[in-house]
Design a protein that fits this description.
Blueprint: E1 3-9, H1 16-23, E2 29-34, H2 41-47, E3 51-54, H3 60-70, E4 75-78, E5 83-85, H4 87-98, E6 109-118, E7 121-123, E8 131-138, E9 142-145, E10 152-155, E11 159-168, H5 174-194, H6 203-218, H7 225-248
Parallel strand pairs: 1-2, 1-4, 2-3, 6-11
Antiparallel strand pairs: 4-8, 5-11, 6-7, 6-8, 9-10
Helix pairs in contact: 5-7, 6-7
């Protein structure tokens, strides 16, 4: 089964080699859609024989759908530049790749579990795990949808799970995490407002407290000690910012 890997990039020189290395000898092409990198991203793409396409940024949903449209094959592995396939997940995908052509009874997509590498640890507790995502799919039956942030894949047909994990190197450090919280909370608030959602002065506090309780006790972040507390606290802070920014929009 022929597979295209699709990646969107912007200044990903620190992450891209790790991602592309995990795809070696596994997919039949790599399509990189770049929105204007000024670092070594284009050269790294060339070194790994990827097809590099410049395309002005249109938002996560439009950018990822554009990448799908440039894939030569119907089956696509959608992966972010700050992710890599674990050896077990590579083995699972290779079995599919080397197997027979999909039939009418085949799944439309395959779901993987994503694990975050954070502060030197793999986080297998709390809100972040297991983060189940469909990443290998038939593009004829799927497309990305959503707002300015947190795009989702909408797919028609059955989905099957794969063993192994997708490694996610999401934050460089605490400063990077806080900067992303600031950025993504703004995008979320704008999208929510456009969709007709509203918030009052109490909303930031009630939603943040619920998120903190859910993270610590229902999702198990409390098992992670001080690191679990840090993750839960920052997740709650992000929720607080989302609703504070939404309440400020009129």
């Amino acid at each position: 089964m022929k597979i295209s890997a699709c990646i969107i990039t912007l200044n990903e020189e620190s992450n891209l080699p790790r991602c592309l290395q995990s795809l070696r000898d596994l997919v039949d092409e790599v399509v990189i859609v770049d929105s204007g990198s000024t670092d070594r991203t284009p050269f790294i793409a060339t070194e790994f024989d990827a097809r590099f396409i410049r395309h002005d940024w249109e938002g996560y949903v439009a950018q990822k759908n554009f990448a799908l449209s440039k894939a030569s094959y119907n089956w696509v592995l959608s992966i972010d530049a700050d992710e890599e396939l674990s050896s077990e997940l590579r083995h699972e995908i290779k079995k599919i790749h080397d197997g027979p052509e999909p039939s009418s009874t085949s799944p439309s997509g395959y779901e993987v579990s994503r694990v975050v590498f954070y502060e030197g640890h793999w986080i297998r507790f709390g809100d972040w795990y297991p983060d189940r995502l469909v990443r290998l799919f038939d593009k004829r039956k799927a497309s990305f949808a959503g707002g300015q942030v947190h795009e989702r894949l909408e797919i028609q047909g059955p989905i099957e799970p794969l063993a192994g994990e997708l490694h996610h190197y999401t934050y460089k450090d605490l400063a990077d995490q806080k900067a992303r919280i600031e950025h993504y909370s703004t995008l979320w608030a704008q999208t929510a407002h456009q969709e007709g959602k509203r918030a009052n002065f109490l909303s930031p506090y009630t939603h943040a407290l619920w998120r903190l309780f859910r993270s610590l006790f229902l999702k198990g972040s409390i098992q992670g000690g001080s690191l679990g507390w840090q993750i839960a606290r920052l997740n709650a802070y992000e929720v607080y910012l989302k609703y504070k920014k939404l309440a400020a929009l009129k």
